[in-house]
Design brief:
Elements lengths: L9 H32 L6 H26 L12 H37 L3 H24 L2
Length: 151
């Protein structure tokens, strides 16, 4: 049996790391949302696990920001110059502006998530902490989803 191991260049390696972090982020986000909804409905205390998940959510967003900026700064412009028709020019504009839109929405999502973490840390009751985490993190997740729809 022969293993075909492809040598990865720096760009594709960073892209794989970015994708892996995105998967870890999704797992943490789903787990955090489930725990927050349970905490609100059943009036559970805000535990250390909830706090670690909240910080994991934020840390993953920062890691995605760093690796995303590395990808953006090293992105090869492999777009062909197809200005002969309106459809080709529109596709070119879409390819050029999507990374900017994605980065801006991701920065806003990071800001919203940080705001939610700060406000939840200032809250006194567990239910209030769960509510703020759920509200702000779901808004951040919706912004992330909107930024990915344009791919």
């Amino acid at each position: 049996m022969i293993l075909n191991i492809e040598v990865l260049n720096g760009y594709s390696l960073i892209k794989h790391v970015h994708t892996f972090i995105s998967g870890a982020f999704l797992i943490i986000a789903v787990w955090l949302i489930i725990r927050s909804v349970r905490g609100i409905i059943k009036n559970h205390a805000y535990t250390k696990l909830d706090k670690y998940l909240s910080y994991g959510f934020i840390i993953n967003l920062y890691l995605q920001l760093v690796f995303g900026l590395i990808l953006f700064s090293n992105h090869n412009s492999t777009v062909d110059d197809n200005f002969s028709n309106a459809e080709g020019a529109l596709k070119l504009a879409s390819k050029r502006f999507w990374p900017i839109e994605h980065i801006v929405l991701m920065l806003f999502a990071l800001f919203i998530a940080n705001l939610g973490l700060i406000l939840s840390n200032q809250s006194l009751s567990g239910k209030e902490k769960h509510t703020k985490i759920l509200t702000y993190y779901v808004v951040a997740l919706l912004m992330i989803a909107i930024s990915l729809i344009a791919i």
